[in-house]
Amino acid sequence: MEKSTLVEILRTFSKNELTSLGDLAASPYFNKKSNVLKLCKALNKFAPEFPAEKVTKEEMWKHVYPGKKYNYGIMKNLIYDLNKLVVKFLELEMYSKKTFDNDLNLLDGYRLKNLKSLFIKKAAETRKKLQARPQDNLSHYYSYMIYCSEMSYLDYDFLFRSGETDYHSGINRSLLLFYITNQLYHNTNSIQYAANSSAVIDKDVHENTLKMYEDSPFKDTYTDLLQLSYKALAGDSSKEAYDKLKIVFFENYRNCAKYIQYDLITSIINFCRNNAQIGSAEFVKEEFIYIKLMIEEKIYENSTIG
After folding, report:
1. Coil, strand, or helix at residue 138?
2. C-alpha 244, offset from chain centre
3. Which end of the chain is more exposed for a tag (fewer CB within 10 A), N or C?
4. Number of domains in the chain
């Protein structure tokens, strides 16, 4: 059992997580088998090391069924049931951190129950919370989903009374910017890598995305920042493009989510390092500026890299 998936997962749990897991196992909504709870409590006694000699199936059997003869089949099923519960715990923990996904699901719940006044109030609260949230690649997605949720439920009479004379423009804006921000963000590193290696890229896709944004009536500062990063860090860009990015970056980076800050700074550091290595000495100092920023504001803590 010490090499089981169950113990492998439990070894990663903090003390608080193990306590919460015990609470979950004690809830009849999630678990109606008292012996699963007993196994959970027995295992928790040996956290976080879970020494091999203490967590064998036979030893755990003694905690759950004291005085009874060991039964491999029963114990196997018990471990299986607890493992399912542990996986459910991880799902719930991750789900609870995705507050906007929770809000969207609650809007669906109100819609299905035809609770119109609660739906309207929650939609307004969610949109206000979204506007105050640091920007990242899901910002426009959540905006789009709120619009779609409202359009799928609220009647036209409400939409017109809400003052939205062109309600669909909000949907179109959010959908277009969601595509563009993700295309720019996820390809900045790949296009930079291609410029410094033999990797082949489809330049038409990149150029069409840039043109789409340049021609679009929908603009915002976050997408502007990604566009400038994309242009400046492509590998063959001009010093002028980098200087423009630097100004806009320092004006706006604090409005971005921490993981976006980390990824953008890492891309800029790579760009500066590549240019320094091919003889542009001024980029040695430029690289240090961003390393210093990442350390002073502890942006590196948002990465799993030490």
Report:
1. coil
2. 29
3. C
4. 3
Write out the two tokens for 290.
């961003």
Q: How many CB atoms lie within 10 A of CB 237?
A: 19
Which residues, 6 or more positions from 52, have their beta carbon under 8 angstroms from its beta carbon? Answer: 2
Asked if residue 123 lies in contact with residue 149, where contact means CB atoms within 8 angstroms, the answer is: yes
Residue 12 and residue 50 share a domain: yes
The string over 266-294, giving b where at least 16 C-beta atoms fall within 10 Å of a residue's C-beta and e elsewhere, is: bbbbbbbebbbeeeeeebeebbeebeebb
Residues 60, 71, single domain; the answer is yes
Q: State which residues form the domain around 81.
A: 5-97
Cβ(41)–Cβ(74) below 8 Å: no
∠ Cα 106 257 212 (to 5°): 90
Q: What percent of the chain has pLDDT over 90?
A: 60
Could you tell me the pTM of the whole model? 0.78
State residue 256 phi and psi, 5-degree precision: -95, 155
Query: Cα dist. 51→74, 133, 165 in Å?
Result: 23, 44, 66
pLDDT tens-digit profile of 87-123? 999 999 999 888 899 999 999 999 999 999 999 999 9
